[in-house]
Specification:
Structural class: mainly beta
Radius of gyration: 29 Å
Helix content: 10-25%
Shape: globular
Strand content: over 45%
Number of strands: 32
Low-confidence stretches: 1-21, 248-290
Length: about 700
């Protein structure tokens, strides 16, 4: 009856729909966790930066039969042509498998698919993939190759797979056909090397969901497999762009454009002549008598930068047609490049005299970060017509021009003794264990940073428990890993910028890591002149407050910035907090200020996993007032992993772990390890984009 109803509804929907063919055949998630049809893959992948979260009730029970159960899937596009996905398969949601009489399935598996390059897309698309990679209990281990070809409203796929399933699914040749006559409707039919299956998919348009994403309902209404009592099953998927790669307009380097008296140029000239700021230095006019116009422009620029929320603002100029701007960024906390872009845009907006050279110095608590030098007229052309200007970038500070006259107070809007409060969630969880499909402990965390003097400050931290599942209760199995309500950080930090791109930071004070400690941490980081290579040495020593014992860690870390493709590679080796020694590696695929990551660890156990990091704050935070600042974290990370190469997937918490502080060299001074000359050049058009948004 269900099968007949599905066919009837599908037929009526098709007949009653507007006669509007689909422009592009959609990519759907299969019931088995990868992009495809029902049980089989096609050669397509999840779009870059997109995720697909799904649920279906067709449980493949250890490759032996199909029953009514629970499948939770997650897929993401890491880069062009490559997707990773995960699948949680479970017979029950909350049964304690230690107490039930029969052995139940609760499994986590990871999958990957790669679309082969260099094959013209108008010929066909070819992909290779693997399912249940390297897990402890490989219930679904499968390897396959597949080719797909689109013709009109159809997509044809065929391939060959190898697996050890008793059902024969994906163990031999397979094929499938997809027909999508409308954007919101598709029919699929396949042979999965064991049985014929057919399904219908109906998608709720993105515009009906406030352009957040697409919701797809699936009904498998036919299957002739001999390994299931039911030949129908259903599923639902939600697809959305979790991260959007910024699409900036192309930058032209030649030919040189002819710039007319456009509206935007008029906007520059209008704003360059408004709201002059009174010079507070009573002797200023004695020096500026011959150059009142430059004085007024510099004063107006300084007023605008302070109004934008920048700290430690200094503006000066000399008779060699050089203007100098020093500032600290505390509002564009997601990415320091946005601060640089707005400052350069303000200079081109308010400094209208011809032939002026700008010198911009960005720092944090008087620790130099980046310096830039260029021509104001050329940069204004970049804003107006996208002609790439010549800008010289220095890591750290560059030589200061001579004979400068500073406008107004030397240091306007000091950053010191103003607390900055950052809120973020603290989440510990467990997936697909013997106790349940998902267990969690959630707390709301607050970290307070109070700058004191150059490179120094006080860091305070604590959290309040918000909610947790039963297995994280105080008397339950995961009680030692629950997020407690507690005050867990009180440290004093001091940072130094040393020659040759070296930074050093020491923190000492109180730490709560399940037990109370007094400890000291030191991080020394070297950044190459171009910023592509970063090497860090981390050491820590901690004394128990209540016991005659101590803990320590020592690690060396390396990072390579592949800025042309927004990818960073990380490796860290040494002795970690829980006395486990070994190595961990990670590849991060950046999308603006967020990333998706693949990681691997080999210390006490071998482990692979998937992680993402997202900002929980707007692009521009509130300005720091005399009372401080309240903001969300610029980078919140969540991960899921599984052990590999072993017969059992025993849980392991905090492997390859070091105590983390909200203040670190990477987070506070190096823009999550990305602030460099190479990164700025690779993302130069972002400077124009931020100015046009906030001008």
């Amino acid at each position: 009856m269900l099968k007949a109803n599905t066919l009837l509804i599908s037929g009526l929907a098709t007949l009653c729909a507007p006669v509007l063919a689909s422009d592009k055949i959609n990519n759907y998630q299969s019931f088995t966790g990868y992009t495809g049809l029902i049980n089989t893959p096609n050669a397509n992948v999840v779009d870059v930066g997109n995720i697909d979260i799904g649920y279906n009730n067709m449980l493949d029970l250890r490759g032996k039969e199909y029953i009514d159960g629970h499948n939770f899937s997650f897929a993401a596009g890491l880069f062009d042509g490559f997707e990773v996905s995960g699948l949680i398969a479970a017979e029950s949601m909350n049964d304690n498998l230690f107490l039930v009489n029969e052995k139940q399935l609760r499994d986590v598996s990871f999958n990957a698919k790669y679309q082969l390059p260099y094959i013209p897309k108008d010929w066909l698309t070819v992909a290779i993939g693997a399912k249940d990679i390297g897990g402890a209990a490989n219930n679904y281990e499968t390897y396959y190759a597949v080719a797909s070809k689109e013709l009109w409203d159809f997509r044809f796929s065929a391939g060959y797979a190898v697996s050890d399933r008793a059902t024969g699914q994906m163990d031999g040749p397979f094929a499938g056909i997809e027909w999508q006559p409308f954007d919101w409707f598709a029919l699929q039919a396949e042979h999965d090397a064991d049985a014929f299956n057919a399904a219908v998919k109906v998608t709720v348009p993105k515009k009906w969901l406030y352009d957040i994403g697409e919701l797809t309902f699936t009904s498998r209404f036919y299957s002739n497999t001999d390994y299931s009592e039911e030949d129908t099953s259903w599923g639902v998927n939600f697809k959305m762009p979790l991260f959007t790669k910024p699409e900036y307009e192309a930058i032209e380097s030649a030919p040189e454009p002819v710039v007319s008296e456009s509206d935007e140029l008029a906007y520059f000239k209008l704003n360059a002549n408004k709201d002059p700021v009174t010079i507070k230095d009573p002797n200023a006019h004695r020096y500026f008598e011959s150059n009142k116009e430059m004085t007024r422009q510099a004063a107006t620029l300084k007023h605008a930068l302070v109004k934008d929320g920048f700290e430690s603002v200094q503006v000066g100029f000399n008779n060699d047609k050089q203007i100098v701007v020093k500032f600290e960024n505390s509002t564009f906390n997601r990415n320091d490049l946005d601060a640089i872009g707005l400052v350069l845009g303000r200079i081109s907006q308010y400094v209208s005299s011809e032939g002026i050279e700008f010198n911009v110095f960005m720092s944090k608590q008087d620790i130099p970060q980046l310096s830039l030098k260029g021509n104001v007229d050329e940069y204004r052309e970049f804003i107006l017509s996208q002609k790439h200007p010549e800008v010289v970038v220095y890591q750290g500070a560059m030589p200061l021009p001579r004979a400068l006259t500073w406008v107004g107070l030397m240091n306007t809007n000091s950053p010191y003794f103003k607390p900055r409060v950052t809120f973020s969630p603290a989440l510990t969880n467990a997936y697909a264990t013997e106790l349940g499909v998902y267990d969690f402990s959630l707390a709301l965390r607050a970290d307070v940073d109070i700058p004191l003097w150059q490179g120094a400050g006080i860091n305070l931290g604590g959290q309040v428990s918000v909610a947790n599942s039963d297995d994280f209760d105080e008397d339950a199995a995961f009680r030692y890993y629950r997020e407690e309500s507690e005050f867990d950080r009180a440290t004093l930090y001091q940072t130094f910028a040393l020659p040759y791109g070296i930074y050093n930071q020491t923190q000492l004070g109180y730490y709560k890591e399940r037990f109370d400690f007094y400890g000291i941490q030191n991080e020394t980081t070297w950044l190459s002149p171009e910023g592509r290579h970063k090497v860090s040495a981390n050491i820590g020593y901690f004394d128990y407050q209540d016991y005659d014992a101590n803990r320590d860690y020592q690690t060396i870390a390396y990072q390579f910035n592949w800025v042309e493709h927004d990818v960073t590679f990380h490796a860290e080796v040494g002795k970690f907090w829980n006395e486990d020694s070994g190595i961990k590696v990670e590849s991060r695929f950046w999308f603006g200020d967020s990333y998706l990551a693949l990681y691997g660890e080999d210390t006490d156990a071998r482990k692979i996993g998937f992680a993402f990091s997202i900002p929980l704050s707007p692009r521009k935070d509130m300005s720091v007032t005399r009372y401080g600042q309240v903001k969300g974290t610029e980078a919140w990370r969540h991960s899921i992993g599984t052990r590999i190469g072993e017969s059992q997937n025993t849980l392991i918490f905090n492997q390859a772990y070091k105590p983390v502080n909200s203040v670190s060299i990477d987070r506070k001074y190096l823009n999550q390890g990305r602030l460099s000359k190479a990164y700025l050049y690779a993302n130069f058009s972002r400077l124009r984009d931020v100015y046009l948004e906030y001008k």
